[in-house]
């Protein structure tokens, strides 16, 4: 058993007969009344995000969750298929249980969350940044880079994001998987 003082981002708790990962939290101490913790929780079984408020000192039940490295193989009509790098065991996972599946490319290593008490896969998390190749974008106009103007660029995974005007086709760029935004060029 833990209390609201133990809440941190990424902690997995049992709440309302479900497993939730804490996305963000805020300790609030109003001038009048007791303190409380405002949280955003993501269900690890359905992928839904809810907001919940716990009173300060409230008991919460933490769940034992391991993060294991797996490799993404391919996608088909069953789901996204991953492989354990040690045992070569493969399993499919539904799209709703993967953070930012639009940035997954074949051979990418991801962290898979496994509930250790039930030995059940809960979801997959991509790294904070991934390097992807720009397969198509309009050429930038010379002298048009004084402002923070952007243009659409299609990536090798099939998704389209906004990039600065100086990015050209066939360049490698770094993309933030949490926000889906351009970070920098990859050398």
How would you briefly describe this protein structure?
The chain is built from no helices and 16 strands. The protein has 187 residues and is mostly beta strands.
Kindly state the percentage of residues in helix.
Answer: under 10%
What is the third-level CATH name, the topology of the largest domain? SH3 type barrels
Give the strand content: over 45%
Largest sheet: 6 strands, antiparallel
Distance between the termini: 47 Å
Radius of gyration: 20 Å
Determine and state the CATH class of the largest domain: Mainly Beta
- What is the domain total for the residues? 3
Number of strands: 16
Shape: flat
User: How would you spell out the order of helices and strands?
Assistant: EEEEEEEEEEEEEEEE
Q: Write out the strand line-up for the largest beta sheet, numbering strands in chain order.
A: 1-6-2-3-4-5
Number of helices: 0
């Amino acid at each position: 058993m833990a209390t609201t003082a133990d809440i941190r981002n990424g902690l997995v708790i049992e709440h309302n007969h479900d497993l939730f990962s804490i996305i963000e939290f805020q300790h609030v101490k109003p001038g009048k009344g007791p303190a409380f913790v405002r949280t955003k929780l993501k269900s690890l079984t359905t992928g839904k995000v809810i907001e919940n408020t716990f009173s300060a000192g409230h008991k919460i039940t933490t769940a034992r969750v391991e993060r294991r490295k797996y490799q993404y193989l391919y996608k088909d009509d069953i789901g996204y298929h991953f492989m354990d790098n040690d045992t070569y065991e493969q399993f499919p996972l539904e799209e709703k249980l993967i953070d930012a599946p639009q940035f997954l490319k074949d051979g990418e290593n991801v962290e898979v969350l496994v509930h250790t008490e039930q030995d059940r896969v809960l979801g997959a998390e991509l790294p904070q940044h991934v390097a992807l190749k720009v397969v198509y974008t309009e050429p930038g106009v010379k002298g048009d880079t004084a402002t923070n103007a952007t243009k659409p660029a299609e990536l090798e995974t099939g998704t389209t994001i906004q990039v600065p005007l100086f990015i050209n086709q066939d360049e490698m760029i770094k993309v933030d998987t949490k926000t889906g935004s351009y970070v920098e060029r990859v050398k």
